[in-house]
Amino acid sequence: EVQLAESGGGMVQPGGSLRLSCAASGFTFSAYDMTWIRRAPGKELEWVSYINFGGTTTYYADSVKGRFTISRDNAKTTVYLQMNSLKPEDTAVYYCKVTQWNHDYWGQGTQVTVSS
């Protein structure tokens, strides 16, 4: 059974940093690309970042480029999202996602709140 468990969220002041983790199990983690997605209050889901299975290719939404860094540790079956220079508009529930055989698997999400 595919399981994804996000952690690391919390409340931080503008300009602060957080590192999110997504621990994966139930599948061959090193064979799959991973994605971070977020949902801000009252808004649609927003794709945030992508990393390929080997960690050699990454992409970012324009809204987070230069501030967020995605990475992965295949030995620990974990994907990370380092978030720096956080802004109030980064407030959202953050989810990690993996797609297998055209089926999306999501974690339960972790809340990030950026507020003074």
Write a structural description.
Strand 4 (34-39) and strand 5 (45-51) form a beta hairpin. The chain has 116 residues and is mainly β. The protein is built from no helices and 11 strands. It has strands at 3-7, 10-12, 18-25, 34-39, 45-51, 58-60, 68-73, 78-83, 92-100, 103-106, 110-114.
**Count of helix runs:** 0
The amount of helix comes to under 10%
Oligomer: single chain
Distance between the termini: 40 Å
Low-confidence stretches: none
What order do the helices and strands follow?
A: EEEEEEEEEEE
Radius of gyration: 13 Å
What fraction strand?
over 45%
Mean pLDDT: 97
Per the principal axes of the C-alpha atoms, what is the gross shape? globular
**How can the largest sheet be summarized?**
7 strands, mixed
Backbone structural class: mainly beta
**Count of extended strands:** 11
Q: What key attributes describe this structure?
A:
4-stranded antiparallel beta sheet, globular, 116 residues, 7-stranded mixed beta sheet, mainly beta, single chain, 11 strands
Detail the topology: elements first, then pairings:
Blueprint: E1 3-7, E2 10-12, E3 18-25, E4 34-39, E5 45-51, E6 58-60, E7 68-73, E8 78-83, E9 92-100, E10 103-106, E11 110-114
Parallel strand pairs: 2-11
Antiparallel strand pairs: 1-3, 3-8, 4-5, 4-9, 5-6, 7-8, 9-10, 9-11
Question: How is this structure best summarized?
Answer:
The protein is mainly β. The protein is built from no helices and 11 strands. It has strands spanning 3-7, 10-12, 18-25, 34-39, 45-51, 58-60, 68-73, 78-83, 92-100, 103-106, 110-114.
